[in-house]
Amino acid sequence: MQYYIKNRGVIDVEPLFLKPVFQEKIWGGNQLHTVFGFDLPNDSIGEDWAISGHPHGVSVVENGPYKGWQLDKLWAEHRELFGNAEGDVFPLLTKILDAEDDLSVQVHPDDAYGLKHEGELGKTECWYIIDAKPGSEIVYGHNAQTREELAEMIENGQWERLLRRIPVKKGDFFYVPSGTIHAIGRGILILETQQSSDTTYRVYDYDRKDEQGNKRELHVQQSVDVTTVPAISPELEVQETKHGESSIISYLKTDFFNVYEWEVAGRLSLTKEGAYTLMTVVEGYGNLIVDGQTYEMQPGSSCILPSAIQTWALEGEMKIIASTPGK
């Protein structure tokens, strides 16, 4: 596929498939291998940074004219691929998380606090539950009514009184704005769409110790500073449209990202809705067809559709979580 850029000539454009970046975690497991077939360095891998321009785990393009390019460099030097979008950093990050054990109870700052105190964006995120073992649950919100009560309950370790726990199942979706106290529980496999930030403030970590016998650092004061009090439970306006046997579910349209589920049963034709599109296969197999070219898709396949790609089709039996930059 080609398109013309003034003063640049003809540029080859095709989907940008990205190599996964694995992150070892104290709570990680091996489902990124058993479910998605990734070759893991060990059995404590908690995260696949599937699409990332963040310096803590930058994706590398695996195909086409930009093969070998890092996503952050591509963003800096070929902004035309992203509709000449503004911003110093690639704004989105897609992860797959394998919670073999409970993640810490945590909270993320908004942009203003993150930029002032950490030098990077805040972190609003959302979760699609790929799978969950029976009895799995998440921490989602808290019961403190004032910031003073929040600090007191944290100080006194009143976790059962403070934290709201919600059972989850495969196919659930949650919006987690900055300021939301949250934790992914053990036995859950998640696709996370988030701002490109790695700032996490730990509220509580179950007094766990690492291999050296040290407890992980907590960030109590920062957590109290940035937590939304009282807690807010966002109302989702989920919309589903059928396309033959296939369907499109719109989960979120926010200032940070718009998130969709594409359930492909046979064929699904799609048209560009954002400056560029991120997509990750969470289940099943099929093909992505762009300008007459066919690309095989399997669980864990992740790519970016650059701005010049206006239409595409999906064939097979698969579920994909897709996102575009915020409205």
Would you write up a description of this structure?
12% of the residues lie in helices and 44% in strands. It has 327 residues and is mostly beta strands. It has two domains: 208 residues, Jelly Rolls (Sandwich); 87 residues, Jelly Rolls. Strands 3, 6, 16, 17, 18, 19, 20, 21 and 22 form a nine-stranded antiparallel β-sheet that branches. A six-stranded antiparallel β-sheet has the order 4-5-7-14-9-12, with no helix packed on it. It has a three-stranded antiparallel β-sheet with strand order 11-10-13. Helix 4 runs antiparallel to helix 6.
Percentage of residues assigned to helices = 10-25%
The N- and C-terminal alpha carbons lie at a distance of: 27 Å
| Rg result | 20 Å
Question: Number of domains in the coordinates?
Answer: 2
Q: Which spans of ≥5 residues are poorly predicted at pLDDT below 50?
A: 3-10
SS element count, helices: 6
The biggest sheet amounts to: 9 strands, antiparallel
CATH superfamily of the largest domain: Jelly Rolls
Roughly what fraction of the amino acids lie in strands? 35-45%
The assigned structural class equals mainly beta
Summed up:
The protein has 327 residues and is mainly β. The chain has helices spanning 31-34, 71-77, 111-117, 147-155, 159-162, 220-226, and strands at 2-5, 9-12, 16-19, 21-29, 45-51, 60-61, 92-99, 105-107, 125-132, 137-142, 163-167, 173-176, 182-184, 188-195, 201-204, 239-243, 246-253, 257-271, 277-290, 293-297, 302-305, 311-325.
